[in-house]
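Section 5.1 Outputs to date
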Amino acid sequence: MATLSGSATGGAHSAGNAGAVVSSALGVARAVGHSAGRSSGFVLTATRVNAISRPRVPETSKNEAQHRLQLAHAINRAIRGNLDCNIQVTLQPFAGQTIIEDARVSVWTAPHMAPITGSAAAEIASGQCFAVPSNGQVTIFHSNSGIGDRVFNVSLVG
């Protein structure tokens, strides 16, 4: 089993290709390696993708004044850009892809990858790193490199 450690913003760092589970303040994320002897990538399944994930506003409430206040807070957070749609991802060394699974993702999702480390910025600059959304997941294709500190903040919008 691989050794994983979760970060405060939902990332997972893997040291192998076998399955492993990481718990963080966000919930549980599961990294799943592919077939034995092949290092093609890993899957990061996040139950919640943001360290400061706010409770969702209910559609109805018996207390109308409190409900309006909850709606106002949620709208103001969205206006300030806090959409609760970020996850921190470290690309797996010696793998060609990383998959982020999230039920909210569709083919219309726009994944934006912001590099945090110099190695991540170099990965983007090489032109070999891009993200492709599909229903329920985003596949990040990247170079099959041994560099282990390629860390990104990934925003999943839409």
